[in-house]
Design a protein that fits this description.
It is built from six helices and six strands; from the N terminus they run αααααββαββββ. It has 181 residues and is α+β, with helices and mostly antiparallel strands.
Length: 181
């Protein structure tokens, strides 16, 4: 079984190439995970640092469906956060209007607005803030790694989904990067 240190070396070592490659590297590790415990160790370490996840959402959803739930493998702040969620959770997502049904959501509206505004030098064309409800049973995992109150969920189980355009204040110089997550 891979140690946290070995997972970290593979995800963030010099040959990894940056956060836009994290999902690809993480996916290869997930394919080779020996058991569910190792699967979730890899996912919990890799996911919070992954950008460019949109193109992977369908295949990741299938893997998450097959290996869920993560709850038995959560610890620390992630476990506290998950255990404190109600049976039906209100979630938010800041993203491009064509990327609403993604895996990554948050329980914090201000965090969603930050993602709609753009984060880590990633531009968000046609930004929206989405609001939905999700049964706790449809949540694959949570992470508090970046204090984003992140909920990784089955986007096909979202209910009462609404989107509102996000009007951001003009800024000097837009980034050339496109929002991927």
């Amino acid at each position: 079984m891979l140690t946290k240190a070995e997972i970290g070396r593979r995800l963030w070592g010099p040959e990894a190439g940056g956060s836009e490659n994290t999902v690809s590297i993480m996916f290869q590790m997930l394919v080779n995970a020996q058991n569910r415990e190792e699967f979730w160790r890899i996912f919990q370490l890799g996911w919070p640092t992954a950008d460019a996840s949109w193109e992977w959402r369908t295949i990741l959803k299938d893997f998450l469906d097959h290996n869920s739930p993560a709850a038995p493998f959560l610890d620390g702040k992630d476990k506290e956060f998950y255990d404190g969620l109600p049976g039906v959770v209100t979630v938010y997502r800041g993203c491009s209007s064509d990327r609403v049904r993604g895996l990554a959501w948050t329980t914090d509206l201000d965090i969603a607005r930050q993602f709609a505004r753009g984060h880590r030098q990633i531009d968000v064309p046609s930004p929206v803030v989405a609001t939905a409800q999700i049964p706790k049973a449809a949540i694959y995992t949570v992470t508090m790694d970046r204090h984003e109150y992140e909920v990784v969920l089955n986007y096909r189980r979202l209910r009462r989904l609404k989107t509102e355009p996000y009007e951001r204040a003009p800024t000097a110089g837009n980034s050339a990067l496109h929002a991927y997550s």
